[in-house]
Amino acid sequence: MATTPAAAAKVWEQNATPRHRIQWCPGCGDFGVLAALKMALGRLELMPHEVLLVGGIGCSGQIRNYLNGNGFHGAHGAPLAYATGAKMANPELTVITLAGDGDTLAIGMENFVHVSRRDPHVTLIIMNNGVYGLTKGQNSPTAGLGQTMEVHTEETPPFVDPLRLALVSGASFAAQSFSGDPKHCAEIYAEAIKHNGFAVVNDFSPCVTYNKFNTYEWYKEHVEDIPAGHDPSSKDAAWALLDDFDRRGRLPVGVVYRAPRKKKPHRRLPIWDEEFADVDPTPMLQPFR
């Protein structure tokens, strides 16, 4: 029987009942990301067995525990590497990476840059709050958003802009969202997941415990929808849009850049049926009997 959006949404809602207490602070922006992700997966009519959620280290990485489907949790900074490997091993999977700004843009920056270059069909949702929430609120690479600092030090360098880094590194899809508006987030996530390439969504997900500057109220005053006339297929237009919003002290939400690459088929995809046809699994299973 064919899946419908309503049926898929019901499955994800029922499937998302956590088996243990949600370990986020009350009011955490990640609740909005979770709600939006469930909406997006239902809208795309995806079933849990078709999706792999790869979580990073930190508060954001817990999100895979609250959707009882396929999940993977690996080393700090490496979720994009695991996601790329999973997509290579099973190209039919919808692979979504759910990570924080520290996980992605500090220890994981090398993976972010090179996955942007490689452009696998993998989606990355960055839950960006400017702090390391799991380890008591130290500044992350995105700390300082919206703050004027006339003097920088090695301890307080300029913040990293995920979208600008994605564009300069070659990502073929770059967007922003604000978890305080889950319905709009769901639209952006669905567009990102459908994109045939590496899709980056920088989600402003407030930390209510440690970041007392970038609050929900602050974001509501500073986020602004991308104009309807924006051409996301033009990288020049994407840079101009970011420059314009920076000059006005605003944060664009929506799709900033989307330009699918022309790709050749992979030179080698998994051929398990042929490779394992003559393999006898008995010796491997013997110890478990």
Task: Explain the overall architecture.
- Strand 9 (223-225), helix 9 and strand 10 (251-258) form a beta-alpha-beta unit.
- The protein has a single domain (24-145, 155-288), classed as Thiamin diphosphate (ThDP)-binding fold, Pyr/PP domains (Rossmann fold).
- Helix content is 35%, strand content 17%.
- By secondary structure, the chain is an alpha/beta fold.
- The model has no long low-confidence stretch (mean pLDDT 89).
- 42% of the residues are buried.
- It has helices at residues 5-15, 30-43, 79-89, 101-107, 109-118, 162-169, 182-194, 216-222, 235-247, 272-275, 282-285, and strands spanning 51-55, 70-73, 94-100, 122-128, 131-132, 138-139, 173-178, 199-204, 223-225, 251-258.
- An eight-stranded mixed β-sheet has the order 2-1-3-4-8-7-10-9, sandwiched between helices. It has a two-stranded antiparallel sheet with strand order 5-6.
Name of the CATH homologous superfamily: Thiamin diphosphate (ThDP)-binding fold, Pyr/PP domains
Any idea what the shape is?
Answer: globular
Total beta strands: 10
Q: Identify the CATH architecture.
A: 3-Layer(aba) Sandwich
Helix content: 25-40%
Order of helices and strands: HHEEHEHHEEEHEHEHEHEHH
What is the count of DSSP helices, taking H or I runs of 4+ residues?
11
Q: In which order are the strands of the major sheet placed?
A: 2-1-3-4-8-7-10-9
Amino-to-carboxy terminus distance: 38 Å
Radius of gyration: 20 Å
- For this structure, the CATH topology is Rossmann fold
- In round numbers, the mean pLDDT is 89
Low-confidence stretches: none
Short note summarizing the structure:
The protein is of the alpha/beta class and about 290 residues long. It has helices spanning about 5-15, 30-45, 80-90, 100-105, 110-120, 160-170, 180-195, 215-220, 235-245, 270-275, 280-285; strands at about 50-55, 70-75, 95-100, 120-130, 130, 140, 175-180, 200-205, 225, 250-260.
